[in-house]
Write a structure and sequence with these properties.
Radius of gyration of chain A: 23 Å
Radius of gyration of chain B: 16 Å
CATH class of chain B: Mainly Alpha
Largest sheet of chain B: none
Strand content of chain A: under 5%
Shape of chain A: globular
CATH architecture of chain B: Up-down Bundle
Distance between the termini of chain B: 21 Å
Strand order of the largest sheet of chain A: 1-2
Largest sheet of chain A: 2 strands, antiparallel
Strand content of chain B: under 5%
Distance between the termini of chain A: 53 Å
Number of domains of chain A: 2
CATH superfamily of chain B: F1F0 ATP synthase subunit C
Oligomer: heterodimer
Number of helices of chain A: 8
Chain lengths: ~270, ~70
C-alpha cells in the first residue's frame, strides 16, 4: 500500500524501494542549509507551505484591521467573528480573568487552522501540522504559558505543591497520587496536546491521499473502474469531513489550552 | 499472508475509545435533550471529554507506525 501512496504523492514516477509511510510527509530539500546542532536543516515543501499560509493569514488580518470601521465590512466582520469566538471560549472556561488570554488563544486558533487547512488546499495538499515539529512547538508554548500562569498566581512552591499534593485526599493515598498527578499535569498534558493534533493531521493526510489515489489508479483499469467511480463520488465527502476535523482540532487545542490555564489560575478546592 | 501486526494492534486500540466516545456523546445528547438551556455548557464539557478519550485512540495510531 505504501508503494502506491508514495507513487501517487511523487507524481507517479516514484520507483525507489520504500517501506514506510514517511514518504508522504518527508520531502527532499530544495535548498540544503547544512548541519546545525546535529540536525539536517534545509528548506523543503513543508516549510514553504507553512511560510505561505503564515503570510496569507498575516495579510488577511492586516487588510481587515488596518483601518477598522465601526460598521465593519465583510472581511473585518468575518475576522471579528473569529476573535469573538475565542473571546467566548476564554469567558466560558476561564471567566472574566481570561480576557487577557484572548490574543494568545486567537493566535493558536488561527495559526493551527491555517496550517491544517493546507491539507485540503489544492496545490499544497500537505498539512505542516502533520509533522511533529509544529504541534510540539505549539504544545511547548501552551505548557510554558500555563505553568507560567500557575507560578505567577500561586507562587513557585504553591503551584507545584498544588499539583503534587491535591488537598482533600487521605494522606496515605499521596504515595500513589503524587507521581500520577505530577506526570499527568506536567508531562502528559503537553504530550497529548501535541499528539492529538499531529495524529489527526497525519491520519487525515493519509486518508486524503488514499481518496485521491483511488480514481487515479482504478478509473483507467478495465475491470476496476467502478471502484474509481466510487472514489470520485467519495472525494468531496472526505474533503468535507476533513474540513470538519481541521476546525475541530483547532477548536480543541485552543479550548484545552484555556482549560489548562484555568486549572493553574487558582489552587484546587 | 503478509502484513504488520501493528495494524491489528491499532484495531484493538480503537475499541476502548470507541465505546468511551459512544457513551460520552450519548450521555451528552441525553442531557442536552433534557435540559436544552444547559446545552452550551454540556457541549463544551463534552468536547473536553472527547479530547481526553480520543487521545488514547490517537496514541494507538501513532504507535502503530512508530513501533
Amino acid at each position: 500500500m505504501t508503494h502506491v501512496l508514495a507513487a501517487a504523492e511523487w507524481g507517479g514516477e516514484f520507483d525507489g524501494v520504500l517501506d514506510d509511510i514517511n514518504a508522504l510527509f518527508d520531502f527532499p530539500k530544495f535548498i540544503d542549509l547544512g548541519t546545525w546542532f546535529g540536525q539536517d536543516i534545509g528548506i523543503n515543501r513543508t516549510i514553504i507551505i507553512a511560510w505561505l499560509m503564515t503570510a496569507l493569514v498575516g495579510l488577511l488580518f492586516v487588510i481587515a484591521f488596518r483601518d477598522p470601521k465601526l460598521v465593519p465590512g465583510k472581511l473585518q466582520s468575518a475576522l471579528e467573528m473569529v476573535i469573538d469566538f475565542n473571546r467566548q471560549i476564554a469567558l466560558d472556561i476561564i471567566g472574566p480573568k481570561g480576557l487577557k488570554f484572548v490574543p494568545m488563544l486567537t493566535t493558536f486558533f488561527v495559526a493551527i487552522f491555517a496550517l491544517n487547512i493546507a491539507k485540503i488546499t489544492p496545490i499544497f495538499m500537505l498539512p505542516p501540522t502533520g509533522r511533529m515539529a509544529w504541534p510540539l512547538m505549539f504544545a511547548v508554548i501552551a505548557w510554558l504559558i500555563y505553568v507560567g500562569v500557575g507560578i505567577q498566581n500561586q507562587g513557585l512552591g504553591g503551584y507545584f505543591a498544588g499539583i503534587a499534593f491535591p488537598p482533600g485526599v487521605p494522606k496515605a493515598l499521596y504515595i500513589i497520587l503524587t507521581p500520577i498527578e505530577i506526570v499527568s499535569s506536567l508531562i502528559l498534558r503537553p504530550f497529548t496536546l501535541a499528539i492529538r493534533l499531529f495524529a489527526n493531521m497525519a491520519a487525515g493526510h493519509i486518508l486524503v491521499v488514499i481518496t485521491l489515489v483511488t480514481p487515479w489508479i482504478f478509473l483507467s483499469s478495465a475491470r476496476g473502474w467502478p471502484i474509481g467511480v466510487f472514489g470520485v463520488v467519495l472525494g468531496p465527502l472526505v474533503f468535507a469531513f476533513e474540513l470538519f476535523i481541521i476546525a475541530l482540532q483547532a477548536y480543541i487545542f485552543t479550548m484545552l489550552t484555556a482549560v489548562y490555564i484555568d486549572s493553574s489560575m487558582e489552587a484546587h478546592h | 499472508m503478509t502484513g504488520s501486526l501493528n495494524v491489528i494492534g491499532y484495531g484493538l486500540a480503537t475499541l476502548g475509545p470507541a465505546i468511551g466516545l459512544g457513551m460520552l456523546i450519548g450521555k451528552a445528547l441525553e442531557s442536552m435533550a433534557r435540559q436544552p438551556e444547559a446545552a452550551g455548557m454540556v457541549r463544551t464539557t463534552m468536547f473536553i471529554g472527547i479530547a481526553v478519550v480520543e487521545a488514547l485512540a490517537l496514541l494507538g495510531f501513532v504507535l502503530a507506525f512508530a513501533l
